[in-house]
Design goal:
It is a single chain. The chain is an alpha+beta fold. The chain folds into 2 domains: about 5-205, Cytochrome Bc1 Complex, Chain A, domain 1; about 230-410, Metalloenzyme, LuxS/M16 peptidase-like (Cytochrome Bc1 Complex, Chain A, domain 1). Helix content is about 40%, strand content about 20%. The protein has 15 helices and 11 strands. The protein has helices spanning about 45-55, 65-70, 95-105, 115-130, 140-145, 160-165, 170-180, 195-205, 255-270, 275-280, 315-330, 335-350, 355-370, 380-385, 385-395; strands at about 5-10, 15-20, 25-30, 75-80, 85-90, 185-190, 230-235, 240-250, 285-295, 300-310, 405-410. It has a 6-stranded mixed sheet with strand order 1-2-6-3-5-4, with helices on both faces. Helix 1 crosses helix 4, helix 9 (about 255-270) packs across helix 15 (about 385-395) and helix 11 crosses helix 15. It is globular, with a radius of gyration of 23 Å.
Length: about 425
Amino acid sequence: MVELEKFELDNGLKVIIHPDPSTPLVALNLLYNVGARDEHPEKTGFAHLFEHLMFGGSIHIPNYDQPLQNAGGENNAFTTNDFTNYYLTLPKENIETGFWLESDRMLCLDFSQHNLDIQRHVVIEEYKQRYLNQPYGDVWLLMSPLAYKLHPYRWPTIGKNIQHIGEAALDDVKNFFFNHYAPNNAILVIAGNIERKKAQTLTKRWFSGIEKRRVPERNLPEEPVQRSERRKTVQRDVPYDAIYKAFHMCRRSDADFYTSDIISDILASGKSSRLYQHLVQEQRLFSELNAYVTGNIDPGLFIVAGKLIKGVEMERAETEIIKELEKLKHDPVPVRELNKVKNRIESTLVLEEINILSKSISLAFHELLGDAANINSEVQKYRSVTGEQIASIASGLFATTNCSTLYYKAKTG
């Protein structure tokens, strides 16, 4: 059981405190409710660009990393389609340094053309290295617009066009910051060796003076139901053919999410999973084969992805994947197999609770979904999934008309 206390500042900042005296550290996790889905279709990649800009110096602190390192701290951040997350850990004696750093860059970044130019260059190089010049790197540049036609999930977090980052102007950056980086658009989690009263005092001291901002109302287009199968074939300079199949599924907060997630583990979690046993080990069609859910706040995707053994025909490999998916619709999952998957999921969730940083990230995410306290009911929600629910969800999920398939072929000759 993860104990927590919640309160909200007058400026709208939501705060969650989780005392844990078993560690000498304190984690601060600051989640901003802005991600790639909040970008303009002609100015994509801004949320991720901002992740970089946030480390370039704030109005009173020209160097974010130096004072944190001097205090014995570590930090990092990540961007998703749905939110941007910043976190740090510090020895409990030095935690006020973390409050100082995070509050100052929430107050205002040091906007400069020099910093923007540097970070644009960094992100463009990342785009080239990870998405354009790496084998299979452009998969999500292809899959996102194949699976989504209207919703902004149709572009990945890096952006759909490298030119959008290259053309980012200083006014664009300022507008993005003041529209989204606001106390009333953020969730602060304080977890670790800190007393509740001290956490409250430090939060009020460093964050209460930051004024609310006008955050634009989110009005995202709803993705239409996919009515027909979609396919795309590309050739790339890669060593092996690969196949990617994306099925539309529910949002992360829906009750059916847990059933879908368990299905992904039945198919591809560990060497005893179905896809590994039948298609990797027995039939030797794939060198690797995975299944996973995106877990998006808006309706997401169930992905099956694998690299084929050289010489295996793409059509045969796909047929065998479909056979495994069809079994879930018609053949009851044995109780022993289902319980093994549930046990593995429970172990993973319990282990995550040992680490204060993992807990702080999870608490912020659950609060974004609706209530941080729901972290304590996750195990039971997985435990309650039945074989009948699996068959029911699989029947709708794995419909041919609900699938977008990418054949990613290796060039020959």
